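Data deposition worksheet. Section B asks for the primary sequence of the deposited chain exactly as it was used as input, without tags or linkers unless they were present during the calculation. Section C holds the resulting structure in token form. Section D is free text for depositor observations; keep each observation to a single sentence. Incomplete worksheets are returned to the depositor.
Section A, Depositor: J.P.
Section B:
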Amino acid sequence: NIPTHFIELKNDNRIIAQKIKVIPLEIVLRNTAYGSLCKQTTIKPGTVLEKPLIDIYLKNDDLNDPLITKERIELMKIISSEDLDLIINLTLKINAILKSFFENIKLKLVDFKLEFGYDSKNNILLGDEISPDNCRLWDLNQKNDTIKSLDKDRFRNDLGGLIEAYSEINRRINDFL
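Section C:
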């Protein structure tokens, strides 16, 4: 029951999607502290958060996509507070679904980024894919406390094995389904 721009899968590499007017905000939900949250605070990497944290960033390359507050969103009239509340509620709902799904395939959903937009009838739709490019996923099959990243961090941190990591996620999903 998540309203999305997705219409159908055309083939393995293409989807048919509704045209949307993208809202210039990136919604980041964090279940576990890592990355910029730890660089900007005293929270230790790997700390499981008591409740999901939602950070909102203004999509603006000239400003380096800054963290933005609800009050600034209202001040800039980017979207209404009601629409922002809807987006936050949808993000929390998506998190519950994804956490459960990924736990079933022995992956920990650390955090993820989503974008939303308006369709032609002004309805808010999820306008993003769920993939290892916008999710931070850790392998729960590790025998020790070492973090094994199976996401874009393999590329960001020059760890190698990006194709193998994505293939492993794909294999687990296919095995589960």
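Section D:
The two ends are 19 Å apart (CA to CA).
The mean pLDDT is 94.
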